[in-house]
Amino acid sequence: MEGSSVFLLCLTASSGVPLYCRSKRSSRQLTFSVIGSLNGVHMFANNQDVLLTSTRTENSRVLWRTFHESINLIVMSCDSNASDHSLNRLLENVFSTMVLVIGLDDLMNIKNVERLKKDLRACYKLIDSFLTESEKIGDLTQCVDCVISNDSVILQECLDGFTQAAESEFGCLLIGGKVVVATEKWWRLASLDAMLLCWLVSSLSPHSSRDYPVYLPQGSPTVPHRLLTFQLVPGVDVCILCGPSPSLQKVELELVERFWKPVLDPVKSCLRLQLRSFPISLNLHQGILGFLLINRDLNKSLYTVQVHPFEDTQRSDIKCILEHRRASLRSFYTLTMLRYFSPEHHDGKIQYEEAFPEGFTHQAHQCYVVSSSHKCYATKTDLHFLFLLFKTNVPTFSMRAIANKTMQVFTKEFNF
Ligand SMILES: *[C@@H]1O[C@H](CO)[C@@H](O)[C@H](O)[C@H]1NC(C)=O
Ligand SMILES: *[C@@H]1O[C@H](CO)[C@@H](O)[C@H](O)[C@H]1NC(C)=O
Ligand SMILES: *[C@@H]1O[C@H](CO)[C@@H](O)[C@H](O)[C@H]1NC(C)=O
Ligand SMILES: *[C@@H]1O[C@H](CO)[C@@H](O)[C@H](O)[C@H]1NC(C)=O
């Protein structure tokens, strides 16, 4: 198996017919015998009333999940950093993608396998975007990735008017799949649904407008809605979720220009936010390499590993550096959420990483990790989680104060 390749298999649960296979960083396809064995061992266990969920070898990890007793998903990852948690999230996202595009009914009652295989091709782009690393983190957090714009007030006003004129209550303005502004109702969609819609738009090839039927895996898995998207400038789309009316043409001809032409400059300036996720005028502490801020009420997040873009672009190995930062922040997030900030108490006890004394019951509110390549610090409040990635030269004792200051800036000044 190659370095950090990932294979994803989808089969029918009843008969084990392969529906598709996607992979990351691999030139090879899995052979039928490997596919057969992976599915066979799961089926064998099932027949013995054993639920096989995961296994690991020295260099790979395999997870199985059955959805609605109808679809089996299997993931095999050779990335030593991949956790069961992140792979489980991947499988959930992949199945949700299938519901989003096909609807739950056709997945639960498979009548024609060949037809289903063909229909499932429409999911490939979105599924592949979950397999490749990206500037977003919603695949892991199942929150909506956002950016903070200086012009959010004027853009919000414009979006609210536009959405209303299009007879909808659900609208959002997207840059590269990250939300700049969204209507109040949009924020009340199940966050998994909202996240998937954003990733869907950014995974499709650019188009001036679209009328895309979507099911909402949480909110409406069996009744489709229409997702209308309009490209305002390359990279920036406005989207609305609606019923049978209005027609795409009507919105495109009568509303897009009327509402968005007057704010074309603020729309264009959103493009500058894509990597950093917040305005260039805002300076954060020099020791911060990246961060993830989550608003726990709206399940939205602000995420970047390019806090100081000018400094970064001078480096030749920038791609590798950014990938390393992303991997570090993602694994710190997973560790912290599972081991320290988790609301779940197993048997009334919190399962910390360390062997704390018996009867130790209070919940951690802060946590940090120091390694040879970076430091990480996380803090939680009633409304937010903040995860910071630091350079190693930042004194460990000062991380808490820097985190507090950073939290204040985004939550107080920018109201995130
Ligand atoms: C954002 O606003 C601040 C102050 O209101 C201003 O100094 C800065 O230039 C603005 N940034 C952009 C990118 O428009
Ligand atoms: C927000 O996230 C939490 C934790 O993942 C989840 O329990 C809750 O249902 C989410 N809220 C919405 C509206 O999806
Ligand atoms: C795993 O993560 C560490 C940093 O946390 C990184 O140095 C290493 O390259 C990663 N391994 C893979 C296979 O991505
Ligand atoms: C963060 O700073 C604020 C104001 O400066 C202070 O009231 C608060 O106690 C600090 N919180 C922590 C966790 O240090």
From TrEMBL:
Recorded superkingdom: Eukaryota
Residue ranges constituting the FUZ/MON1/HPS1 third Longin domain according to the UniProt record: 287-413
Keywords per UniProt: Cytoplasm, Cytoskeleton, Signal
UniProt key word Cytoplasm: yes
Compartment(s) of residence: Cytoplasm, Cytoskeleton
Every FUZ/MON1/HPS1 second Longin domain range: 168-260
Matches recorded under CDD domains: Fuzzy
Signal peptide annotation: 1-16
Gene Ontology process terms (BP): non-motile cilium assembly; vesicle-mediated transport
Pfam family, one: Fuz_longin_1
Listed GO CC annotations: cytoskeleton
Residue ranges of every copy of the FUZ/MON1/HPS1 first Longin domain listed in the record: 8-129
UniProt xrefs under PANTHER family: INTRACELLULAR TRAFFIC PROTEIN-RELATED, PROTEIN FUZZY HOMOLOG
Family: Belongs to the fuzzy family.
The protein's name: Protein fuzzy homolog
Organism encoding this protein: Pyxicephalus adspersus (African bullfrog)
Taxonomic classification: Eukaryota, Metazoa, Chordata, Craniata, Vertebrata
